[in-house]
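Preliminary data (for renewal application), magnesium ion complex.
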Amino acid sequence: MRIGIGYDIHKLASGRKLVLGGITIPYEKGLLGHSDADAVLHAVCDALLGAAALGDIGEHFPDTDPEYKDIKSSKLLSEVNGLIRSGGYLISNVDIIVLAQEPKMAPFKKKMAGEIARILGIKAGQVSVKAKTNEGLGAIGEKKAIAAYAAALLERKGE
Ligand code: MG
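Predicted structure:
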């Protein structure tokens, strides 16, 4: 078995859609980035790549490459899933923490977990999405950013 950890943070900005965990969440701002800036899926990508020692999301999908401009992060996660699978790994589980002062994440946690499981081709019960505010502290607490942590466990096929 192999474990990986991932982290990501993006700034909140006006005039952007808020996409987190592969779903669109109604809010007055969205995350700023080269792609759709889905911090949750980016953290999951890095956790999976880390577990397989396959580098990081920036190496695979450089934000200087116009090919990835405004790309859906679900597509990036799907590509990472392909790399993991062709490396001979199965995903045991993925555990995620979303850090957002606003909007409330509770109504969306299940849907995010379901969407991530769908992209990865695993069961909804293998993905956990937890959410916290940052207790008003720092950039996240001041609603200037949203961050996410993810951990992933992989197993080698046939072991
Ligand atoms: Mg990112």
